[in-house]
């Protein structure tokens, strides 16, 4: 697929959020791989301090510096950064106040934790500021990274996390903090930034996704796509699913099929167990179809459930699926 065919041509900051347990870190990593395809250079940033990115790419825990973690399809490169709030604050103090030594002393005294506790908005300013600096950074006349992907906080906190203008107003009306906050928001609210939501086909994650899209849209921050993660395919025909859901499967036919396959012993009991399992599968499939119908936002990307679990090969498989659907 050519660059012109992708859904996010011109977008350089991809923010990935989702309810806990939906696989947002996995999707963020797969998106970074997809965006790096064709020789591009992409930075994947983690802001929650869980080292989930390092685990996915099977590398040692990431220090507070950008490290190459993968080569993408077509020779592109994925770099990763796990932001350490204390180090980022020291960097912030040095950049705006020339106070690196003071920052290190504050760390030893525990004052940084105290400050970010009484003014939690400052932590968000620091984290988003580091990410947007990576988006703006240039080497010569070109941007250092073709795209930056942020593995962001969960959906329930994403609007507050990104809409730092209110937090900055509470911290400072004028001066470097305010100027920095305004610069950060100019990037976050620009056409080059989009927020993507990750969900499972379950009631609570879908509802949280819909609420998050509504809240974020009201804040003026650009909404990207919805990624339906771990979708399970129906293993029965539509007619068989209906029959299974109604408890109307022909048990005699199932029993005959089992016997024909060489499973004559206890074939009737096994057929009953299979019919019960088919009924549960029918109910599950029906629930997923109803929840999927609620996601009317476009674009939407469907990623398969990987029965063998998530490993590096699976990550590349998901990246390919995102490319095939136009995400990169």
UniProtKB/TrEMBL annotation:
Domain annotation ArsA/GET3 Anion-transporting ATPase-like: ranges: 13-173
GO molecular function: ATP binding; ATP hydrolysis activity
Superkingdom assignment: Bacteria
Gene3D superfamilies the record matches: P-loop containing nucleotide triphosphate hydrolases
InterPro entries tied to this protein: ArsA/GET3_ATPase-like, ATPase_ArsA/GET3, P-loop_NTPase
Keywords, sorted A to Z: ATP-binding, Nucleotide-binding
Protein name: Arsenite efflux ATP-binding protein ArsA
